[in-house]
Amino acid sequence: MGAEAMRAATVYRRLLKAVDKHIGKDGSKGHFRDFVSQEFRNNSNLSEQEAARRKLKLASDYTYLISSVHHHQELLFSYNIAVDRSDEMKKILNKSAASVGLQLPDVQQS
Prior knowledge:
Elements: H1 3-23, H2 30-42, H3 49-78, H4 86-99
Helix pairs in contact: 1-2, 1-3
């Protein structure tokens, strides 16, 4: 495997990890992962080196963007700055309940 192929594999792996971690793997969000996989498959046989480098740079930049936006959102949550914290509070409560062996009931909102 050449240096370019190793770099492409690394960028691909990092991008998939970022998508899984920050966007999710759920059924409704699985199309993001499918899109990334399909784009890498479509561009796997690019003959032009410069085009391949640009595509890898774009994928790398997108990985950085996903991670940065997620980190920024976490900072906003931690400083209580104009962000809806209800989902965050549900996660914290579920973790707290799970740590003592309890499970919170699912509450349906209408």
